[in-house]
């Protein structure tokens, strides 16, 4: 999966993406490009049944959404804040995909961090502990708000998120603004969020992350079980 598209072509991400995709589709890798020289060699174990339909690209900025559409790839987006803000990119991806490939774009994937309990007090406690820890790890890892993303359009989202985090008074407070974007809540609240999200973004596929922020596996399992019992049947329906 390509994380984004750099305007500095020397990095070679676009070249590498094409080489990898062709290797998965044909079973052979070869390259004679500016940055990659690879004699023809067979991929082992040989990929079976690979098409562009099975490939996913993380698309969290206008430029990376454009690349995903150009390549005919399914797009994956993380839940980061209000979905209204993402609709221009989502619609551009769909329009570009349709124009480029003559068919409707596939449903994109939404990656959610999930906190699921019957008791709203437990939801709040687990969110303040584990989701907050996960959010802080991401902020520190990507160094939101630093200058090194400002000249990379493919990472413009991180510049914006850094500004939002700073405006909120730091990451320990800013994470609360991301709670509503993810499927966090009681089963009833989750289904309400799903209905509102679907009305806005249309059909989508879900990638559910249950284990994060150092959460004990016993808690992970309990929430997965509750989600599968009380939420999944409605989502499938």
Strand-helix topology:
Blueprint lengths: L12 H14 L1 E5 L4 E6 L13 E3 L3 H10 L2 E5 L8 H15 L7 E5 L1 E2 L3 H23 L13 H13 L2 H4 L9 E2 L1 H15 L3 E5 L7 H14 L1 H5 L1
Parallel strand pairs: 3-4, 4-5, 5-8, 6-7
Antiparallel strand pairs: 1-2
Helix pairs in contact: 2-3
Model description:
The structure is a single chain. 26% of the residues are buried. Strands 3-4-5-8 form a four-stranded parallel beta sheet. The protein contains nine helices and eight strands. The protein is globular and about 60 Å long. Helix 2 (62-71) runs parallel beside helix 3. The chain has 237 residues and is α/β, with parallel strands linked by helices. Helix content is 48%, strand content 14%. Helix 2 (62-71) links the parallel strand 3 (56-58) and strand 4 (74-78).
Largest sheet: 4 strands, parallel
Q: Uncertain runs with pLDDT below 50, 5 residues or more? A: 1-10
Taking all Cα atoms into account, the compactness measure Rg is 20 Å
Mean of all residue-level pLDDT scores: 85
Helix and strand content put the structural class at: alpha/beta
Shape: globular
The N- to C-terminal Cα distance equals: 30 Å
The order of strands across the largest sheet is: 3-4-5-8
Percent of residues in helices comes to: 40-55%
Q: How much of the residues is beta strand, in percent?
A: 5-15%
Count of alpha/pi helices: 9
What pattern of helices and strands is seen along the backbone?
HEEEHEHEEHHHEHEHH
Give the tally of β-strands: 8
